[in-house]
Write a structure and sequence with these properties.
It catalyses: a 2'-deoxyribonucleoside 5'-diphosphate + [thioredoxin]-disulfide + H2O = a ribonucleoside 5'-diphosphate + [thioredoxin]-dithiol. Strands 3, 4, 5, 6, 7, 10, 11, 14 and 18 form a nine-stranded mixed β-sheet that branches. The protein has a three-stranded antiparallel β-sheet with strand order 20-21-22. A two-stranded antiparallel ribbon has the order 1-2. The chain contains 29 helices and 26 strands. With 971 residues, it is α/β, with parallel strands linked by helices. Helix 8 crosses helix 9 and helix 13 packs across helix 18. Among the domains are: 316 residues, no CATH class; 187 residues, Anaerobic Ribonucleotide-triphosphate Reductase Large Chain, CATH 3.20.70.20; 153 residues, no CATH class.
Length: 971
């Protein structure tokens, strides 16, 4: 496809032609003299997206222009997510042509400016081929490219970031700031906290260190504040801690304890669903946690020996633990709440191309990008189904040669993007420009395997997946070596050349050792072998342009943009899909891959029609007429009657991992009945099979998941979900009692406290009045001069809070909402219990919490008085005194109200709990996940989309909404 100044390259346009400076680009799909836009039929559509739960319109743009073969879903998502300009304004994009041109022209111009192309003709071919591939959904860049490239805003192209933090307060505060800026832009970041000294070590002043788990609380609160204040509904985070850190047990247990809190609060009537009003009181929920284990620990686990936890400052062993016991705690925590995941440190760094610069210590939130600290990676994914060819006789081939050419095109474009990209921090920009990390990957693997008659959990399926992954990465590094001869190797290559070439040999050796299974994967392996031979030859001569080339990302939104049936490396969700229709309405259809698979397996047309009809009616293949039992596994899916086993997922990851620069974003699903021992086995096998990272999810292990129906006690102890019945089923009607709060005003004479305060130099007064027998009921604030804007706003705020309290809103709700709110004035206060405040509002509600909330409630919110903090330093834990346990009224000496008196009061309870009601079975599905629930009578552990209310589906280790394209991850 190319040739460079170093001589003719494989696949050049003219055999033996002399290459100029730059790449010679070969046509793959396009025709000279014909623009790709002129080869398709365009049509205009109206995009109207509604929240089906209340009928409100989320988005509307009429008359948008797209090719006729694009699905309604893809059109809706691209129009609402990626078109730039204010809706309704002349500047608003209204055609896919404008979107693609905005991106492609920017890439072409940068490529020409930086000397990537041999001639203007080659630049034009690059332009046309890139346009064709995007137009025909052959591949897609990650979302930040569509958001930012070609616009007036910073042209950020990366979705994945890794930060770093050292053992100093300055570094920790920089971490909070840098993470916040990344969240603000809608992306996610990960980092390793293992450099921070443990709570079992001393500070230079002689006191005990706080430890990384303590600082995680602050970062979690920051992420929660940013996600609730902006358009991004979830701040994607990854927090990693090394297994030899002395605080590793506390780290493992953080989310387990919070899950127990969620259950207790839910049982007390609080709304603890994901996105619920009360879930914000729970900590550590904005991050994915992973423990970084090394070979030393895993071998100690294997042999049942002791393992040393090492001090961060000296590196000496300060405590020995039983490795089996610690690994068991890790498995128990993951079983209970899906966290923490596991990362295999020595395996990761064994495949590291730049170890002389630094170790790989962390990953992005979805665990597929793993490289140097303070770096980023831009992603792109290919649609594998676009390379499957089937002739009239049913013979199938994977077009390895065309696939390789598209990979070369995409890698070239991705590398060009680093030339003009902006980055959220200077450090990230410097590292990324010096190492030029790329993350090419693919989507639709599950659909491809089914269409070719391969079970996901089979040797043939793994063989084809491994071959495609090897060809993709080998071709990427070959192009990287060709680019190095044209525009130079990455800046860090000279220092890391030996290591980089060693890793290339490791990939090549794995490719040689891989088993060839059948007629589909064998030609792909042959093409991959040729590619790796070129990599070794050209790399030795030219070096490499990129320190990293490939990952397997979740491909959530962009997977929907490409009309993929499956995301990333995932299997199919189910055999029956939900499909939107042009002009409104929807229907359920059997996957298009099912007939292709049956034809590949040798079934006749009449048999195929009967089997498809059976699937349409039942949602599965069990007892389908004429279908052989040995072919059932081909149609196994992620959910349903024949769900793929946990080890089936792990083995598929192991088939692809040796041929990836990075790792794989994937969650291994386990049934609710899975045991802790099974989780332990999955994590152990992940290490044995050479994976870099692994996460599990046991169905229904988390309370904070909004399911389609809930009913306490319906399925025995510990089970709260009600299976969603088929639409035709009748449901019992339960009487729902509606509770309305009643305002209880304060008496004319009321006890009160007036507190003077100073926050960041601003002075004020707060008067807090209480009921004689029932706690706080009124707050007044005095700031600045009477008649000023600030004084007026504080008066209005005081009245709103006071009225809310008199209607029964609990003080702890206000405290959880308004503490950590940041704005000026902020800084030092004159209050010994609250030395620093992020704003006046932050100070006020911390002071009110200290004066009026019981110790347990305050402690859960992280609010303590100076004596309590001192006692913690002295003893290592809080032990509330009798006086503290009695704090509930106006002053600590106020008598505690009896339960009988509370029940006789006409004032409603502080938390008005609505009784759980059985939701009727949905009459209509709004996504494939909901359709699956109706079809199979089960509940999917997936959150509801914040934007449109549709139940999301899993995409790697994240979730994606089929309705509007929103994701819960970092891409």
């Amino acid at each position: 496809m190319t040739e460079t100044t170093s001589g003719p390259a494989r696949g050049s346009r003219t055999k033996g032609s002399k290459a100029g400076k730059g790449l010679r680009i070969e046509r793959i799909h396009t025709t000279p003299g014909v623009h790709p836009y002129d080869e398709v039929v365009w049509e205009h559509r109206d995009v109207v997206m509604t929240n089906w739960r209340d009928g409100s319109i989320n988005f509307e743009q009429r008359g948008v222009e797209f090719p006729g073969f694009w699905s309604v879903n893809a059109v809706n998502i691209v129009t609402s997510k990626y078109f730039r300009g204010a809706v309704g304004s002349p500047q608003r994009e209204k055609s896919l042509k404008q979107l693609i041109d905005r991106v492609v022209r920017t890439y072409r111009a940068a490529g020409e400016e930086h000397g990537y192309f041999s001639s203007p003709a080659d630049a034009e071919i690059f332009d046309h081929e890139l346009t064709y591939a995007l137009l025909h959904q052959v591949f897609s860049f990650n979302s930040p490219v569509w958001f930012n490239v070609g616009t007036a805003q910073p042209q950020q192209v990366s979705a994945c970031f890794i930060l770093s933090v050292d053992d100093s307060m300055e570094s920790i505060l920089d971490w909070y700031k840098e993470e916040g800026m990344i969240f603000k832009g809608g992306s996610g970041a990960g980092l390793n906290l293992s450099r921070i000294r443990s709570s079992k070590e001393l500070l230079s002043s002689g006191g005990n260190a706080s430890g990384p788990v303590s600082f995680m609380r602050g970062a979690d609160a920051s992420a929660g504040t940013i996600k609730s204040g902006g358009a991004t509904r979830r701040a994607a985070k990854m927090v990693v801690l090394d297994v030899d850190h002395p605080d590793v047990e506390a780290f493992i247990e953080t989310k387990v304890k919070e899950e127990q809190k969620i259950r207790a609060l839910r049982d007390a009537g609080f709304d603890m669903d994901l996105g619920g009003d009360d879930i914000t009181s729970v900590q550590y929920q904005n991050a994915n946690n992973s423990v970084r284990v090394n070979d030393e620990f895993m071998k100690a686990y294997e042999t049942g020996s002791k393992f040393g936890l090492r001090g961060r400052m000296t590196g000496e062993v300060i405590e020995e633990v039983d490795a089996k016991g610690l690994f068991r705690k890790l498995a128990e925590a993951a079983w209970a709440c899906a966290d923490p995941g596991i990362q295999y440190d020595d395996t990761i760094n064994h495949w590291h191309t730049s170890p002389e610069t630094g170790r790989i210590t962390a990953s992005n939130p979805c665990s597929e990008y793993m490289h140097l600290d303070n770096s980023s990676c831009n992603l792109a994914s290919l649609n594998l189904m676009k390379f499957l060819r089937q002739d009239d006789d049913g013979h199938q081939t994977f077009e390895a040669e065309r696939f390789a050419k598209v990979v070369e095109l995409v890698i070239t474009a991705m590398d060009i993007s680093i030339c003009f990209a902006d980055f959220p921090t200077e450090k990230i920009g410097e590292t990324t420009r010096a190492f030029r990390q790329l993350g090419i990957g693919y989507a639709n693997l599950g659909a491809l395997l089914m269409a070719t008659g391969h079970a996901y959990d089979s040797d043939g399926g793994r063989g084809l997946a491994g071959a495609i992954t090897s060809l993709m990465t080998g071709t990427s590094y070959r192009r990287s070596a060709e680019l190095a001869s044209v525009v130079g190797a990455y800046d860090g290559y000279a220092r890391n050349a030996d290591a980089h070439k060693r890793v290339m040999r490791q990939h090549s050796d794995a490719n040689t050792a891989a088993e060839r299974v059948d007629d589909l994967d064998t030609p792909v392996w042959a093409a991959a072998t040729e590619a790796w031979q070129d990599v070794l030859r050209l790399g030795e001569k030219n070096g490499f342009r990129n320190a990293q080339a490939s990952v397997l990302a979740p491909t959530g939104t962009i997977g929907l943009m490409m009309d993929c049936d499956t995301t990333g490396v995932e299997p199919d969700l189910a055999l029956v899909k939900f499909k939107k229709l042009v002009g409104g309405g929807s229907m359920q259809i059997v996957n298009n891959t099912v007939p292709a698979a049956l034809k590949r397996l040798g079934y006749q047309q009449e048999q195929i029609e009967a089997i498809v009809a059976h699937i349409a009616e039942h949602g599965h293949v069990i007892d389908a007429p004429g279908l052989k039992n040995e072919h059932y596994s081909v149609f196994d899916c992620a959910m349903g009657e024949r769900a793929i086993s946990a080890m089936g997922h792990v083995r598929m990851m192991a088939a692809a991992q040796p041929f990836l620069s990075g790792a794989i974003s994937k969650t291994v699903n386990l049934p609710e009945t899975a045991t802790v021992e099974e989780v332990e086995e999955v994590y152990f096998k992940g290490w044995k099979l050479g994976l870099k990272a692994l996460a599990i999810y046991r169905d229904n292990c988390k309370v904070g998941q909004p399911l389609s129906a809930k009913k306490k006690g319906s399925q025995g102890a510990g089970a709260e979900t009600v299976a969603v019945a088929p639409a035709a089923a009748t449901t019992a009607v339960e009487k729902v009692v509606e509770y309305r709060p009643v305002r209880k005003r304060l008496p004319k004479g009321r006890p009160g406290i007036t507190t003077s305060f100073t926050v960041g130099g601003a002075e004020g007064y707060m008067t807090a009045n209480s009921y004689p027998d029932d706690g706080l009921g009124e707050v007044f604030l005095k700031m600045s001069k009477q008649g000023s804007t600030l004084a007026g706003m504080m008066d209005a705020f005081s009245i709103a809070v006071s009225v809310g309290m008199q209607y029964g809103v609990p003080l702890e709700t206000y405290v959880s909402k308004f503490t950590n709110m940041r704005f000026e004035p902020a800084g030092l206060t004159d209050d010994p219990d609250v030395r620093m405040a992020q704003s006046i509002v932050d100070y006020i509600f911390r002071r009110l919490a200290l004066d009026f909330l019981p110790f347990e409630t305050r402690s859960a919110l992280g609010i303590h008085s100076a004596p309590e903090r001192q006692r913690h330093l002295d003893t290592g834990s809080y032990e509330p005194t009798d006086e503290e346990m009695d704090v509930e009224g106006l002053a600590q000496s106020a008598p505690r109200e009896s339960e009988a008196a509370r029940s006789e009061s006409p004032r409603p309870p502080l938390s008005v709990a609505k009784p759980p009601a059985a939701a009727p079975a949905p009459k209509e599905a709004h996504s494939s996940t909901e359709l699956l629930e109706i079809q199979l009578g089960l509940n999917a552990d997936a959150p509801l989309c914040f934007s449109c209310g549709t139940k999301m589906r899993r995409a790697g280790s994240c979730y994606v909404c089929e309705g509007c394209g929103s994701t819960s991850g970092c891409s």
